[in-house]
Amino acid sequence: MSKSAELKTSIRQKLPLFMLILFILQPLLDVTSFWQEQLGIGNTVTLALRFVVLAVVALLGFFLSDRKKCYYIFAACCIFLLAGHCLACSIKGYENIFSDLTNFVRVAQMPLFTICFITFLRQNKDCYQAIKKGFVYNFIIISAIVLISVLSNTYLHTYEYSQLGILGWFSTSNAQSAILSFMTPIVIMLAHQQKKPWLVAVAVLASFAQLYFLGTRLAFLALACTAIGIPFVLIVNKEQWRSTTAILLIGLILCLATIKLSPMYRNQTLYNMEMSSKQGDAMAMMGKELEEGFNIYTIDWDSLDKEEAMRLLTVVYEYYRGDLVERFGVEKVMEEYNYSHTITDITGTRYRKIIFCRLLQQEHPPLSKVFGMELARMSYKDTIYDVENDFHGIYFLYGAVGLVMMIAFIGYFIFLIVKALTQDAKKYFTLDAGAFGIAFCLALAYAYNTAGVLRRPNSSFYLSLLLAVIYYLVKLHPYPQTSQPVEKKRPRLFATKAKRTQD
User: Fold this and answer.
1) Which of 163, 302, 307, 449 has the greatest count of CB atoms below 10 A from its CB?
2) Which residues contact 27 (CB under 8 A, 6 or more apart)?
3) How far apart are CA 464 and CA 113, in angstroms?
4) SS3 state at 461
5) Is 151 exposed, middle or buried (0-12, 13-18, 19+ CB in 10 A)?
6) Cα distance between residue 151 and residue 3, in whole Å
7) What phi and psi, each to the nearest 5 degrees, are found at residue 133?
8) C-beta neighbour count of 301 within 10 angstroms
9) Is 396 within 8 Å of 388 (Cβ atoms)?
């Protein structure tokens, strides 16, 4: 055996341990990044460490792979996209190419990790058990970190403005909410498989409590999806479902019964009160622009012509969206908002950033719609307008080509799921598949509604694992024979005819 073959064999045997180390590094890097930010040190150290981890995983995956064609295709796609992106940015003129390239690596990490993790699963099937252990270990580590931060009163709030929600020693609420949401159904299902109801109760208490006090709306969605989804998976698989279902429903009922005390509800209440007040102020501003005897509340906004709408709305847009008005002009801003007079539309942070990037894109050459714009240009007067929705963000940063590539990559795994369930649902819809499937659906919800998954290295790491596990469960995992395909009449008749011929 050659030295290269011996080295590969040695590395294959250690892959499960390597996977566990990768897992444990994630929350530790997040906490380190948090304290660097709190102490004003900057994130250079953790950023460098993440790039080192990415490089090691990529080199290891390529070295071990028997299907290097996948890596070549991925590299070709990245080179094509990056070349087009750099060309589009250079036409307008680069402001910070290093920042732009760093951001590209962050986005490329998810598909690259996915390909590498699939390679690891091919080379050593024990990596699958290591992944399941990794989810449990990280859940315990994150839970301990949050608990320590609360006991020491050093935690960060989910909503800094209202000082509500418990984020712990983590910097990004959407990313951390996504990570906990992915972990919850997996950890609870693994607890169920131990056949110990008390362990299920502990897992439900720890996960539901963290999602409840974290307080994002998607965290509550994850809580509800887990409480409903896992019993469904258990019943379909004819598992002992009563105790686990009872514990989950009790947890869900308690969370819903006390929802008005939750950080999520309280923050939304404060937000709605603030928007109501601002709406009243906006109506008063517009009322001053009306002629005497007219009431702003009785105006039919749909019947107003463009000039009249602009006359009434200009003062509101200049006051509440002065940043966009100053940057692009009031007329362009109003057109993008479709002359809305609703204050939640005008002041909404996510929609504001989308509007900014749309208007910015109009100032760029047409190639920017194909390959995207530079990240540094999505800032104005120290405010960052990089959008808070992942798929929108991929489009504005890397154009239609980048968005199509990302959707196609994720879509391939959705195709695998649909194909497997269509061919033999009884075989593929296992307990593990159900738990990871719930987590994957939540990942898609987070990617659509937040910027906390596809462009965040800490949470995209877990999405890579979910995709790799989907591939493993469909393509690599050994299943017992659960069902026989139904034979069609035509093959059976041919077989009979062949037998008679032989006779």
Assistant:
1) 449
2) 138, 141, 142, 145
3) 6
4) helix
5) exposed
6) 53
7) -65, -40
8) 13
9) no
Q: Which residue has the tokens 């489009």?
A: 395
3-class SS of residue 444:
helix
Amino acid at 118: I
Q: How far apart are CA 69 and CA 64, in angstroms?
A: 13
pLDDT digit of tens for each residue in the chain (503 aa)? 678 888 889 999 999 999 999 999 999 999 999 999 888 887 788 889 999 999 999 999 999 999 999 999 999 999 999 999 999 999 988 999 999 999 999 999 999 999 999 999 999 999 999 999 999 999 999 999 999 999 999 999 999 889 999 999 999 999 999 999 999 999 999 999 999 999 999 999 999 999 999 999 999 999 999 999 999 999 999 888 899 999 999 999 999 999 999 999 999 999 999 999 999 999 888 888 776 656 777 777 877 788 888 888 999 999 999 999 999 999 999 999 999 989 999 999 999 999 999 999 999 999 999 999 999 999 998 889 999 999 999 999 999 999 999 999 999 999 999 999 999 999 999 999 999 999 999 999 999 999 889 999 999 999 999 999 999 999 999 887 644 444 344 444 334 443 433 33
Q: How close are the terminal C-alpha atoms of the chain, in Å?
A: 53
- CB contact at 8 A, 460 and 109: yes
**Full-model pTM:** 0.91
The bridge status of strand 383-384 relative to strand 379-380 is: antiparallel
